[in-house]
Design brief:
GO terms for molecular function: allantoicase activity; ureidoglycolate hydrolase activity; ureidoglycolate lyase activity. Keywords: Lyase, Purine metabolism. Belongs to the allantoicase family. This protein is mostly beta strands. It folds into four domains: 5-183, Jelly Rolls; 200-366, Sandwich (Jelly Rolls), CATH 2.60.120; 380-389 and 416-546, Jelly Rolls (Sandwich); 565-601 and 621-775, Jelly Rolls (Sandwich). Strands 15, 16, 18, 19, 20, 21, 22 and 24 form an eight-stranded antiparallel β-sheet that branches. A seven-stranded antiparallel β-sheet has the order 28-29-42-51-45-48-40, with no helix packed on it. A six-stranded antiparallel β-sheet has the order 27-35-32-37-30-41. It is globular. The N and C termini lie far apart (78 Å).
């Protein structure tokens, strides 16, 4: 019986959206065997996107095509075996495309299917002579340069298929082969799982999730939203056209006149279920990401329910939105609608939850349990700010200025958080690990506190001074926050929980209720707050589940071996005397400022040995002596600092720059390093000592070369330069460091706008003579 042929316009407009292309390499389909691909590769056959013309292009074997082409004169047929993306799928249609093959197209084709009892992974091997192959599409005739859509029979639709064998009879070329079907969804649960059961992506195409409608797809299709991974550039996401107030569909006579500008996409979940959180990824959309996004859900044709309120988005990053507290934990949904405001592009959309049948009678849990989601700048914005660096300058949050700094050795993210006028005290806190979440853990939250001043916590690195014991890597912070209700007490309907890595600090806004819980390992925090702040504590009782966080230990790469002693001596003699850096101590650094580290000598109000509760030590005070009319702003930014060219271990470094800040102190806090695998920023390489070069002011109001000193700083020690202290810009020795910077400035320097009162920089390159020389330690 001949297979029915479907008109292209019918298939593309009304049929294709109801099925998943289970053969495409975009979601994991693979060509695992082939009889012959002499002219062009078998792998082209299942590439996403239409075939392109390569007319006039030739390779060593002949003309090039965007498809699969075999040698001539085959007496029987050529074949290719495709492992489908999903382990088991019901198959309904195939699209055999011969675009751009004319005169060398495959005259006929035939398709067979095979079922595997178990998922095979990447090591599957199948042969054309396997007795399990069953014919799904009888021999069909193909034409040149065209797509051919065939509806499959009941065997294909009702059976379960894991692999396909496509015959090309007798030989020739095919541009694309596409198999459309419905992957088998996961088993439906009969009850709500416990919090430690990880949710799955209910929108994954591998279980049948698919896009069914969208308001606009001008630049790229919304189906890209469901692809695995984070893509490779802006092309494999969903991007709409620009919208403008009063024009197009928002014109006075347009269909959406007077309405809020937005675009939307509707998707059918692969399985009905309860929704725990939404992931919206704007990867590679750095200048065209939406201002905000939100999500709604429905069960079939019921009313739409807001599951994630309209939330600001940032460029090139993943955003995790917890299901709104107003949504019943037993609510089951089948469809979601994601809206972006006003327009723009997204990379991926994921809906995490548990598959449950809508007819199941569910019992709500007796206790409320929040899940700690990865911390992001935008999600935390109602409660304060996140203090961190980013790999790409274009990833800076909207409104955060960025520029290259320190003679192009650092990327500076300015004014990530502003601070209250009273928040001038700098201190340190060594917090014990209160819980171990390496395999996941439920934490009972018993109290929250708030302050009438901002308070910032910046996790420091794990390095230690000589004679001290370094902290272990792998710490993290669970950040629990809530807004104040009308009566001032915590409004638990607004409560959110986040997991912050050791590379992320937080600043809590005034009167925001919070709890900061250190997990896995002890952690030192630099603190900026007010000594006189009034704190209020409120009893609460709810649980937070923290998913397993157990980063693999990464050993620091040893510094480059020092050159020979002769080379060092020659370098030193060539440049005259060089000073030798020494490990920094509070006493030696006292003429220039203070050190921020856990309970240095002389500070007795730190945590007592064995004490269950940590206590912060106030060590220094920030300074701001700008004229009132200057409009200076106190804030915390982050320098992502890299090693300076010419700064090599075991060699002499010429000090060519010295600077001071006449009106403000300047603090640098080396931050920790960490990441959540597959979520957010990648971790920086471990390690990260740095050098400090300072000098006293001379009689001529210039730095005195005779007083030049240099100190070795480990990543567990921060510092405060007093106002007016001459110093060299940060000198990172080996590995990239994020340095939180606390300072007051009139201008940031971003966009070429600066104010000479912020920084006085001197350059020493007259006749090749530097200000001084430093013998960089070898190890």
């Amino acid at each position: 019986m001949a297979a029915p042929s479907i008109p292209l316009e019918v298939f593309d407009s009304s049929i294709k959206l109801n099925f998943t292309e289970v053969s495409t390499s975009a979601i994991g389909g693979r060509v695992i065997a082939c009889s012959d691909d002499f002219f062009v590769s078998r792998d082209n056959l299942i590439k996403p996107g239409p075939s392109i013309s390569m007319k006039g292009q030739f390779g060593p074997n002949g003309a090039l095509y965007d498809g699969w082409e075999s040698r001539r004169h085959n007496p029987t047929f050529d074949w290719v075996i495709i492992q489908l993306a999903a382990h088991e799928s019901h198959l309904h249609y195939v699209d055999i495309d011969t675009s751009h093959f004319s005169g060398n197209e495959a005259p006929q084709s035939q398709v067979f299917g095979l079922h595997l009892d178990q998922p095979a992974g990447d090591n599957l091997k199948l042969l054309p002579g396997d007795k399990r192959w069953e014919e799904l599409l009888p021999v069909v005739t193909l034409g040149p340069n065209s797509r051919h859509i065939f509806e499959l029979g009941d065997k294909a639709k009702e059976g379960l298929w894991s692999a396909l064998m496509v015959r090309m009879i007798p030989d020739g070329g095919m541009a694309r082969f596409r198999a459309y079907g419905r992957p088998v969804p996961p088993p439906l649960l009969s009850a709500l799982p416990t919090p430690d059961v990880a949710p799955i992506d209910l929108l994954s195409p591998l279980i049948g999730g698919r896009i069914i409608a969208a308001s606009d797809a001008n630049f790229s299709p919304p189906s890209n939203l469901l692809l695995p991974g984070r893509g490779h550039d802006m092309s494999d996401g969903w991007e709409t056209r620009r919208s403008q107030v009063g024009r197009g569909k928002y014109a006075p006579d347009g269909p959406l006149a007077g309405q809020e500008r937005k675009e939307w996409v509707v998707a059918r979940l692969g399985a009905t279920g309860v929704i725990k959180h939404v992931e919206i990824d704007s990867a590679y959309h750095v200048g065209n990401y939406p201002v905000a996004a939100g999500a709604e859900a429905t069960l079939c044709d019921a009313e739409w329910v807001t599951i994630a309120a309209k939330t600001p988005l940032g460029p090139h990053r993943q955003h995790w939105l917890a299901t709104d507290s107003s949504v019943a934990p037993t609510a089951v949904f089948s469809h979601v609608r994601c809206s972006i405001y006003p327009d723009g592009g997204l990379k991926r959309l994921r809906i995490y939850g548990h598959p449950i049948a809508p007819t199941t009678s569910l019992t709500a849990p007796a206790r409320t349990t929040e899940t700690a989601l990865p911390l992001t700048f935008e999600a935390f914005k109602p409660f304060g700010q996140v203090i961190q660096g980013w790999e790409l300058a274009t990833s800076a949050p909207k409104g955060v200025s960025f520029n290259r700094a320190n003679q192009d050795t650092a990327a500076k993210f300015h004014r990530l958080t502003q601070v209250s006028p009273a928040a001038t005290a700098l201190g340190c806190l060594r917090a014990p690990a209160e819980h171990d979440v390496r395999t996941g853990a439920t934490i009972n939250i018993k109290s929250l506190q708030k302050s009438d001043s901002t308070k910032a916590f910046m996790p420091q690195g794990t390095g230690a001074a000589p004679g001290e014991v370094a902290l272990n890597d792998g710490s993290a912070s669970v950040v629990v926050v809530a807004l104040a209700g009308e009566d001032g007490s915590p409004d638990l309907a607004t409560a959110k929980s986040f997991l912050a890595t050791a590379a992320q600090g937080v600043s809590f806004s005034e009167n925001v209720w919070y709890s900061l819980i250190t997990v896995n390992e002890r952690q030192d925090y630099a603190i900026l707050g007010s000594k006189d702040a009034e704190y209020t504590e409120s009893a609460v009782d709810f649980d937070v589940y923290v998913p397993a966080y157990n980063p693999a230990p990464v050993k620091a790469v040893p510094p480059t071996p020092a050159p020979s002693a002769g080379a060092i001596l020659a370098s030193a003699l060539h440049g005259g005397d060089a000073i030798h850096p020494v490990p920094v101590t509070e006493k030696d650094f006292a003429p220039f400022g203070e050190l921020i580290r856990a309970y240095p000598a002389g500070y007795t109000n730190g945590v007592a040995s064995g004490s269950p509760k940590p206590h912060q030590s106030w060590i220094s005070t920030t300074t701001d002596t700008y004229p009132v009319h200057a409009g200076a702003v106190s804030s915390i930014g982050v320098y992502r600092s890299t090693k300076k060219i010419g700064l090599e271990r075991g060699q002499v470094f010429d000090v060519k720059y010295m600077e001071r800040h006449p009106y403000t102190s300047q603090s640098f806090i080396p931050m920790g390093k960490g990441s959540i695998s597959g979520k957010g920023e990648n971790a920086l390489s471990p390690g990260g000592a740095f050098l400090v070069a300072v000098a006293m002011n001379g009689p001529d109001d210039r730095p005195d070369p005779a007083t030049l000193r240099s100190f070795i700083m480990e990543s567990g020690t921060g510092l405060v330069y007093r106002a007016g202290v001459w110093h060299h810009p940060v000198l990172v020795l080996d590995d990239t460091l994020d340095l939180a910077c606390i300072e007051t400035q009139v201008a940031t320097g971003a966009g070429g706008v600066s104010d000479e009162r912020d920084c006085e920089l001197l350059t020493y390159e007259v006749e090749g003579q530097p200000f001084g020389r430093i013998a960089v330690p070898d190890l």
